[in-house]
């Protein structure tokens, strides 16, 4: 099948009319190229969007209180209420599927008023009162020193962990940060660590410009008692936080004496549901790219099939002579199929190589200009390339099948009469 004479004949047939061969091959080349570029662009967009979820516990929901809209148990409509620390333990007991429950408080100075002082430097920053587990739910890591721990919680230590952006704002370049004191709304806190965000590219004005203090010392310093501003709740592995939402909300409604039918008293944001929507969106985009690329590829394969029919027509006399000399129909059919597959694979591989070089160039450009919002590392997996190769072989077979069938139907006596 792969003897030298046969391949020499294939090359001669395909090179006898260079312009026609190139135009024919362009359809398959363009189809594969479009498929690769669309998939790579979709992957780059997906990587960029998912970058914002990097380090975030996606199986998480956030819950806060709002005004009640229904009277209940003698309490009026429009009542403002707060979660309490006892609600945290209540949730642990009633919703064992929860892995992390982080009660949180926060404050920020009045607009235009700096609430943090270090030496002669001042700034306005958001201060959080948190438990140590919050670092497992937020996209950040300790850059220097340590994060808050349960000894800090137990002893109500006035310590804080500051973002690297605050360090740049308030401290000199080589100044030691750990062990220094910040005056936050008139209360001194010692800096025990600095953090960086896993997803930050520095473009956000508030990037790495937040302060974390132990929940207990924050509550004591700023008169929050046992009130909880909101909670971050993460479900255990294998459990969906979306499926636990009703159970969680009903538990705290009962604790806070909120009417069971009051849908507005407790607000929440389901991060897991939003993440799943993103996953669904990009899955749909991948299928759209595959369908569009495949349709373009099919048009190219049809073009190859049509040209091969023309080639068979031009070679009618040659085929008749070969049949008259005793060449088997399968040998002629195999010759046409090999020509079709060879042309399809060569044009397709050229498209794959061109697409790979294009993706390499885009990544090199992104590396040189720095991070681009919502677009990161466009690429195509090896599996996609392998699938493209399989598609090329199958396409080549289909493209050559009809011309090959046409070739073996030629009667030698009719072919010899052809001018």
From TrEMBL:
Keyword set, alphabetical order: Cell membrane, Membrane, Transmembrane, Transmembrane helix
UniProt keyword annotation of Kinase present: no
Keyword Glycosyltransferase attributed:
no
Q: Which domain of life is it from?
A: Bacteria
Q: Which residue ranges does the record assign to the ABC3 transporter permease C-terminal domain? A: 290-408
Domain (MacB-like periplasmic core) spans 21-249
Q: What is this protein identified as?
A: ABC transporter permease
Q: Which family does it belong to?
A: Belongs to the ABC-4 integral membrane protein family.
Where do transmembrane segments lie in this chain? 21-41, 287-312, 341-362, 382-402
User: Where in the cell?
Assistant: Cell membrane
* InterPro entries in UniProt: ABC3_permease_C, MacB_PCD, Macrolide_Exporter_MacB
**Membrane topology reported for the UniProt record:** Multi-pass membrane protein
């Amino acid at each position: 099948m792969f003897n030298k004479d046969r391949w020499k004949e294939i090359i001669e047939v395909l090179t006898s009319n260079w312009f026609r061969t190139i135009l024919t091959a362009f359809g398959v080349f363009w189809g594969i190229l479009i498929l690769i570029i669309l998939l790579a662009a979709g992957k780059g967009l997906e990587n960029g969007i998912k970058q914002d979820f990097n380090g975030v516990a996606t199986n998480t929901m956030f819950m806060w209180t709002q005004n009640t809209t229904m009277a209940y148990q003698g309490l009026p409509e429009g009542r403002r209420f707060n979660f309490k620390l006892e609600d945290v333990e209540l949730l642990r007991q009633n919703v064992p599927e929860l892995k992390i429950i982080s009660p949180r408080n926060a404050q920020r100075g009045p607009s235009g008023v700096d609430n943090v002082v270090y030496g002669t430097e001042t700034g306005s920053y958001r201060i959080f009162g948190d438990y140590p587990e919050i670092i497992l739910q937020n996209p950040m890591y300790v850059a220097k020193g340590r994060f808050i721990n349960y000894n800090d919680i137990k002893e109500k230590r006035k310590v804080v962990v500051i973002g690297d952006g605050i360090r740049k704002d308030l401290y000199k370049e080589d100044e030691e940060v750990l062990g220094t004191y910040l005056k936050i709304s008139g209360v001194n806190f010692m800096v025990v660590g600095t953090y960086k965000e896993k997803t930050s590219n520095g473009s956000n004005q508030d990037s790495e410009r937040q302060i974390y203090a132990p929940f207990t010392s924050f509550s004591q310093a700023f008169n929050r008692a046992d009130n909880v501003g909101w909670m971050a709740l993460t479900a255990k592995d294998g459990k969906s936080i979306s499926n636990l939402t009703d159970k969680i909300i009903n538990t705290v409604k009962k604790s806070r004496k909120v009417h069971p039918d009051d849908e507005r008293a407790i607000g929440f944001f389901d991060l897991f549901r939003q993440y799943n929507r993103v996953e669904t969106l990009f899955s749909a985009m991948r299928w759209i790219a595959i369908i569009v690329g495949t349709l373009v590829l099919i048009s190219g394969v049809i073009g190859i099939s049509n040209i091969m029919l023309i080639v068979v027509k031009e070679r009618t006399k040659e085929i008749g002579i070969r049949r008259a000399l005793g060449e088997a129909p399968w040998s002629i059919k195999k010759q046409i199929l090999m020509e079709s597959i060879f042309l399809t694979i060569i044009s397709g591989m050229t498209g794959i190589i061109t697409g790979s070089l294009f993706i390499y160039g885009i990544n090199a450009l992104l590396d040189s200009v720095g991070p681009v919002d919502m677009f990161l590392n466009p690429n195509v997996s090896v599996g996609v390339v392998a699938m493209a190769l399989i598609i090329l072989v199958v396409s080549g077979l289909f493209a050559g099948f009809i011309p090959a069938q046409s070739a073996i139907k030629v009667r030698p006596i009719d072919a010899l009469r052809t001018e």
